[in-house]
């Protein structure tokens, strides 16, 4: 695998480690930001733990060739959820404008955030296609 083919995985690993660790290292601020979102408090409590753990697990999946396909797929799914949420915020679907972005990403406007997320989704799709030949095979016929 040459350097160019590793680029999507490397950039996604950096993204997930950066955002996941930022939420862990700034735990109180991150937890409070989840509680500032427009969903129920119980969901905010679950997401405060689930999101950084998921981000770090995705980075871990992307590190190894045997799990890289799953890491790209998980990246696409999570980024799609984040992008949909950012898009809804951008069009004014929520009564207030919450954010639980990591560090430098907090300084982006909603359109820039949307574009950045779309670029990372594109990277994940490229990575998924590149790792397609390494996709895990079904354990039993018909699965």
From TrEMBL:
The keyword Transmembrane helix appears for this protein: yes
GO cellular component: membrane
Residue ranges of every copy of the Methylamine utilisation protein MauE domain listed in the record: 2-128
Keyword tags: Membrane, Transmembrane, Transmembrane helix
Segments traversing the membrane: 46-64, 76-95, 107-128
Alphabetized InterPro entries for the sequence: Methylamine_util_MauE
Gene Ontology BP terms: methylamine metabolic process
Name this protein carries in UniProt: DoxX-like protein
Membrane-related topology note: Multi-pass membrane protein
């Amino acid at each position: 695998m040459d350097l160019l083919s590793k680029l999507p995985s490397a950039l996604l690993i950096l993204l997930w480690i950066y955002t996941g660790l930022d939420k862990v290292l700034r735990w109180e601020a991150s937890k409070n930001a989840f509680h500032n979102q427009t969903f129920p408090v119980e969901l905010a409590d679950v997401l405060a733990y689930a999101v950084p753990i998921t981000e770090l697990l995705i980075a871990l999946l992307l590190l190894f060739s045997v799990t890289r396909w799953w890491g790209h797929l998980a990246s696409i799914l999570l980024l799609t959820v984040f992008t949909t949420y950012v898009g809804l915020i951008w069009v004014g679907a929520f009564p207030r404008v919450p954010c639980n972005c990591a560090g430098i990403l907090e300084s982006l406007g909603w359109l820039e955030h949307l574009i950045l997320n779309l670029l990372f989704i594109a990277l994940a799709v490229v990575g998924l296609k590149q790792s397609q030949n390494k996709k895990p095979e079904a354990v039993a016929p018909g699965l």
